[in-house]
Amino acid sequence: MKIATWSIERPTRKGKKSPAIVDYLKKLDADILVLIESNEFINLGTAYELFHTENKATRLSDHKGVFHEMFK
């Protein structure tokens, strides 16, 4: 089992880092990804299921997220 963690530092909607981050995470091919300071702008599609906390002030997913791979 491969587990990866990363503090992404709050990616933005128009940020140029987000697509590169998603590409890198997909290439890791981890069974479980634990992402700190992430949000809804990091979308790994249907290959992973997401569990996260929510920022109660903004109702955004400004969170610690755990993705686990759905199919392998």
Mean pLDDT: 76
Helicity level, as a percent range?
Answer: 10-25%
Low-confidence stretches: none
Strand order of the largest sheet: 1-2-4-3
Detailed description of the structure:
This protein has one helix at 17-28, and strands spanning 3-7, 32-38, 48-52, 63-69. The chain is of the alpha+beta class and 72 residues long. The chain has a four-stranded mixed sheet with strand order 1-2-4-3, with no helix packed on it. Strand 1, helix 1 (17-28) and strand 2 (32-38) form a beta-alpha-beta unit. The N and C termini lie close together (11 Å).
Output the keywords.
single chain; 1 helix; globular; 72 residues; alpha+beta
Q: What is the element layout, followed by pairings?
A:
Layout: E1 3-7, H1 17-28, E2 32-38, E3 48-52, E4 63-69
Quick rundown:
By secondary structure, the protein is an alpha+beta fold.
